[in-house]
Amino acid sequence: MTIVVGHLATPEGQEALDASIAEARRTGARLVVVVSRRKGTLEGASAGDHEADLAALGARLSDEGVEHEVRVISDSTDVAEDLVLTAEESGADLLVIGLRRRSPVGKLILGSNAQRILLEAPCPVLAVKPDRR
Question: What pTM did the predictor assign?
């Protein structure tokens, strides 16, 4: 079994990672973590921060005892496409994404990336949101 998760350094991204780790531990699944980076966003000090973040991510996954792979897509132009293609390529059984809270009007329209992932994913999608506490 393979689980793909989209990861960002946000509360939503952290919740998605937490949920995917829990599911991977429960099922013995392999975890593929997708880190999408937009072209030109890693310059100077931020490049060092990025490397430190990736090292911390790898260490956490190892500490959690889950089989994992971290895929960094450096010239990403479309996060939804990155996740859907990774799910297809890896034969994913589950795709995990984080959703942010929206205003009452915003709830009428799901975020475009989330909507595309839900519609185009080749497997079930687990959408999680961070706890407000």
Answer: 0.85
